[in-house]
């Protein structure tokens, strides 16, 4: 089930009211409760790939049914939780439509690569606090972003991505890779995105300045508060950036 923006559960078949069709902006709002990183471009890309087929008004506006929204949510979960490429996701959805039982395949494993959806990767040993986020190897990242090794190497050369200390890529790197790949389909190359990376680094610097005194505090609760504050500031920064870009472009999500 999808979660509504107020946090309540929305049952299948009730996108506002039974049979109601909603705009792409409304779909974005519904999906962002569970998938904060999803964008209009991402939804349009999934449509272009034939994974969802919204209706069109006579004037050409997209209109999505409850089933469309639920399908999009399933696709995004399969990408987020299992790092599946769109080809495999399409096969999974087709099998479900035929009423078949499906088995979620794990990404290709190489060496000591960790399955990011496995309980041990997400939670660590029972009774112990998770010490680090699950990481994936190069092959898994390439599969998740649906690119090739040359493209990944190009992104790394421009500083858009980099392996974490100790090797592997964390969940944030996977998100960055997917977004860079999506932007690339519109003709934006890594050299065009360096300014975005530089702006992000400056924003991160501002956040670190705010929380630095808290992180140096002797009180563990104060240090924990620093981490929560950093996450909140990061979220506000992302929302401000989005609003500023939309304002500059005169974009309306309706």
Secondary structure tally: strands? 4
Structural class: mainly alpha
Strand content: under 5%
How many H/I helices? 10
> How would the global form be characterised?
globular
Overall description:
A hairpin with a 5-residue loop joins strand 1 and strand 2. Helix content is 55%, strand content 3%. The chain has 10 helices and 4 strands, in the order ββααββαααααααα. It has 254 residues and is mostly helical. The longest helix is centred in the last third of the chain and has 30 residues, at 220-249. It has a two-stranded antiparallel sheet with strand order 1-2. The chain has helices at 24-32, 40-48, 66-82, 86-97, 119-123, 138-145, 149-157, 171-184, 190-215, 220-249; strands at 2-3, 9-10, 55-56, 62-63. Helix 6 crosses helix 8 and helix 9 (190-215) runs antiparallel to helix 10. It starts with a strand and ends in a 5-residue tail after the last helix.
Q: How do the strands and helices of this protein lay out in sequence?
A:
Elements: E1 2-3, E2 9-10, H1 24-32, H2 40-48, E3 55-56, E4 62-63, H3 66-82, H4 86-97, H5 119-123, H6 138-145, H7 149-157, H8 171-184, H9 190-215, H10 220-249
Antiparallel strand pairs: 1-2, 3-4
Helix pairs in contact: 6-8, 9-10
């Amino acid at each position: 089930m999808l979660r509504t923006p107020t946090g309540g559960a929305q049952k299948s078949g009730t996108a506002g009211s039974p049979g109601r069709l909603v705009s792409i902006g409304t779909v974005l709002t519904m999906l962002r409760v569970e998938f904060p990183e999803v964008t209009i471009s991402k939804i349009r890309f999934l449509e272009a790939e034939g994974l969802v087929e919204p209706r069109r008004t006579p004037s050409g506006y997209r209109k999505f049914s409850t089933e469309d929204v639920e399908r999009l949510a399933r696709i995004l979960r399969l990408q987020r939780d299992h790092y599946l490429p769109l080809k495999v996701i399409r096969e999974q959805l087709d099998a479900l439509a035929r009423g078949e039982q499906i088995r979620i395949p794990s990404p290709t494993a190489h060496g000591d690569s960790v399955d990011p959806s496995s309980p041990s990767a997400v939670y660590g040993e029972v009774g112990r606090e998770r010490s680090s986020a699950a990481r994936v190897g190069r092959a898994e990242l390439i599969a998740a972003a649906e690119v090739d090794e040359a493209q990944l190497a190009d992104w790394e050369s421009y500083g858009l991505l980099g392996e974490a200390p100790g090797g592997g890529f964390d969940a944030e790197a996977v998100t960055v890779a997917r977004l860079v790949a999506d932007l690339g389909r519109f003709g934006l190359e890594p050299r065009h995105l360096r300014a975005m990376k530089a702006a992000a680094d400056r924003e991160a610097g501002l956040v670190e300045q705010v929380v630095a005194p808290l992180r140096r505090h002797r009180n563990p609760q104060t240090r924990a508060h620093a981490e929560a504050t950093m996450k909140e500031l990061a979220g506000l920064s992302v929302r401000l950036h989005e609003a500023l870009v939309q304002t500059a472009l005169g974009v309306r999500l309706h």
